[in-house]
Design goal:
By secondary structure, the chain is α+β, with helices and mostly antiparallel strands. The chain contains ten helices and ten strands. Helix content is about 40%, strand content about 15%.
């Protein structure tokens, strides 16, 4: 009879939110994994009801302090679609810049503070700082550069308040953008150094046949706009989402689980975006 083991982690460290993990193993095969998210629901959908639609971008930005722009921009895009409003030209470009600022600060946090300790075999980023302070300083500079973009266009670094239906409440003058130039040039060098550093990590020899799902845009790396596609032939408009995806509750988690109606589980995130948009990533270099 195969040996049965259980790995139980009551509190996961270095993750956003609150979670635990149960893994059941029989012999050399993992038979069950349960990621338990026990952070209490915050009912944003409920307390948005009855509020004026202009309040929605500011309220949804409070969902997360690290990725507020994602929630804010999704909300404002939905409202603009409902109102028949199209934002293009420089305003659309500035919104993409705001989103880039969030990606820079969020990715820097995850790479340096949350993930790197595991790859380097230490308990936390403090231990990295003790042995390799220049590396941690580089990560903090990157995060600060992203925060500076969000502060400039969003009105403040956390929970931005400058986005509204149709654009922004305030467009910063050119002089304020020029002040970012030196910081962003240094951030570009730090980003390239980060790629070289992470490329030296030892990754587990593990391959899985994921169905990757992401937005795809014909002309640019997608943020909010584009069609929902997968590497197994899915290609739908965003308005068709609920026809192909279903959300459901599981007993062990407060987070909703989501499945493709036709095939089950799928994989999202930076890996999916890059793979499904690899032919137009040259847009970033223009």
């Amino acid at each position: 009879m195969s040996e049965r083991r259980r790995i139980k982690v009551d509190y996961l460290a270095r993750v956003e939110g609150e979670g635990a993990l149960d893994v059941e193993i029989e012999g050399d095969r993992v038979t069950d994994v349960r990621l338990k998210i026990f952070e209490p629901p915050r009912f944003f959908e409920a307390f948005l009801q009855g509020r004026h639609f202009t309040e929605t971008p500011d309220i949804t930005a409070r969902i997360c302090g690290i990725c507020p722009v994602a929630y804010q921009m999704s909300a404002v895009h939905a409202l603009e679609r409902a109102c028949g409003v199209t934002v293009d030209g420089p305003l659309r470009t500035l919104r993409r810049l705001l989103y880039c600022g969030e990606w820079i600060e969020s990715h820097a946090l995850h790479v340096y503070m949350l993930h790197a300790p595991d790859f380097l075999g230490v308990h936390n980023v403090v231990e990295i700082a003790q042995s390799q302070p220049a590396i941690v300083e580089r990560g903090l500079r990157l995060k600060k550069a992203g925060n500076a973009i969000v502060a400039l266009l969003g009105g403040r670094e956390v929970h931005p308040i400058n986005v509204r239906i149709g654009g922004f409440y305030r467009i910063p003058p050119r002089t304020e953008f020029r002040m970012l130039r030196e910081q962003l040039e240094l951030a570009r060098d730090d980003a390239l150094a980060t790629v070289a550093w992470v490329a030296g990590f030892e990754f587990p020899d593990f391959v899985r046949d994921y169905e990757l799902v992401a937005l795809r845009h014909p002309d640019e790396y997608p943020f909010n706009e584009g069609r929902i596609v997968s590497n197994r032939g899915l290609d739908i408009a965003q308005t068709e989402y609920h026809e192909h995806f279903e959300e459901h509750q599981v007993e062990h988690s407060t987070a909703l689980h989501c499945r493709l109606r036709a095939r089950g589980h799928y994989h999202v995130g930076p890996l999916a975006r890059f793979v499904l948009n690899r032919y137009n990533t040259l847009y970033i270099r223009r």
